[in-house]
Specification:
It contains 17 helices and 14 strands. By secondary structure, it is of the alpha/beta class. It has 3 domains: 197 residues, Rossmann fold, CATH 3.40.50; 82 residues, Orthogonal Bundle (N-(1-d-carboxylethyl)-l-norvaline Dehydrogenase, domain 2); 135 residues, Rossmann fold. The strands form 3 sheets. Strands 3-2-1-4-5-6 form a 6-stranded parallel β-sheet, sandwiched between helices. It has a 6-stranded parallel β-sheet with strand order 11-10-9-12-13-14. It has a two-stranded parallel ribbon with strand order 7-8. It is elongated.
Amino acid sequence: MRVAMIGTGYVGLVSGACFADFGHVVTCIDKDAAKIARLEQGEIPIFEPGLEQLVASNVREGRLSFTTEAADAVRSADAVFIAVGTPSRRGDGYADLSYVYAAAEEVAGLMDGFTVVVTKSTVPVGTGDEIEAIFKRVRPEADVAVVSNPEFLREGAAIEDFKRPDRVVVGTLEPRAQDLMRELYRPLFLNETPILFTARRTSELIKYAANAFLALKITFINEMADLCEAVGADVQQVSRGIGLDKRIGGKFLHAGPGYGGSCFPKDTLALVRTAADAGAPARLVETTVAVNDARKLKMADKILAALGGEAAGKTVALLGLTFKPNTDDMRDAASLAIVPALQAKGAKVRAFDPEGMHEAGRLLKDVAFTANAYEAAEGADAVVIVTEWDQFRALDLQRLKTVMKRPVLVDLRNVYQPADLRAKGFDYSSVGRG
C-alpha cells in the first residue's frame, strides 16, 4: 500500500519508518525544508533508539522517502496520515489544532479517488468531525473517509510499541476504511494484536483517557511517597504490594519527580478543557495536573533540605535533564522546574545528560554542562539523580565521593538502596523511603 505521512515529528517519523518496515511504500512530508534535507542525508532530528537504522534500511530499500511537496504523494496514496503537532495553546490549555486543520485543507485539494485520511495526531473529541467538514467545504465531491488512529508510543521504546502494540485503535464505521486499515496493519496479525474498531469520537477519547489514567497512577504513587516519608514506610514496597494486584498492575507506580514529556502534560490539560466544555468536569484529572505541577517544585525543596536548608554559594550537580531516559525530549521535564528554583536560592548548577544537553541549553540559563557525571560532580555540595539513565545506575561511588566537596546524594528516582549508600559514607536521601 502507498502511505503519505504528513509531519515528520516524533509520531510521524516513527510511524512512517515502521509502516515502511512492514513493506508499505511511505512518503513523509514536512514544510520544514531544512528538516527534510537532514532526513534525506540520513540525519535523524530526534533521539530514539533504533530509529536511525530503521530509517536508513527502508530508504535504502526504496520504501521510505522524504519531501516538502505533498501533491504527488497524496494523489497516489491509499491512506494519508496527519501526524502534525497539537501543542497546548498558550493561556488556556486547549490543544492547538491549527496545524491539523491546515494539513486537512491541503490534503482536500490534492486527493484523487477514494482516500482514507487518518488522524494520527492526538486530538480532542470531535476533531474528526471538523476535518470532515473541511473536506465537504473545500472538496464537496471528494470520496474520503476520515479515520481516527491514535498512537500509543512511549519515547525510548517507540519502535517496539509500534511493532508489538497492546492494541490498535481505529475510529471508523465505514466498511471500506475498515478494510484498508486492516490491510495496513496486517503484519501485526502474526502477533495476534487486537484491532479495536470504534466510532470516531470514541477512538479520539480513548487516547486522552489512557494517558490521563496513566498520569493519575504516577501522581497517586507520588502522593503515597509523601505519606511514606511522613509515617516511615517504603513506597517501593507499597508499589510492589499494590502492583501485584492484577486489577492494578505494577506499571507507572514508580515514585519520582512527576510526569513530563510530549504527551501527559498536554493531553491531561486538553482532556480537562474538553470535559469542562462538555459539562462533565474531569475532577480527578484536574487534581492530577495541579498535584504534578507542584511536585516538581517540591523536589527542589527536597534538594534544598539535603543542603541543610541553605543553597547560596553552593554547587549542585544534576545527573539527567530529560523527562525520562532514552530520549532527548525536554518537554515539561522536572529539571526545567528544579534548576530555576535552585538558582533562585543562590545555587550554582552543573549538569550532565547523555542526550538532552543540546536542547537543555536552549531552555536553561546559567547552567554549566559537563562531559560526564564525574565532571559534573567535581566540587559539588550535592549530586542529584533527576533522570534514571542506565549509566547512572552503577556509578563508581568511591570516585564520585572523592571528587565531591560534600558526599550528599539526592536520588529522585530511587536508583540506589539507602543502606548501601549510607554504608559508603553518603548523606543519602530518596523519594518515599522515610
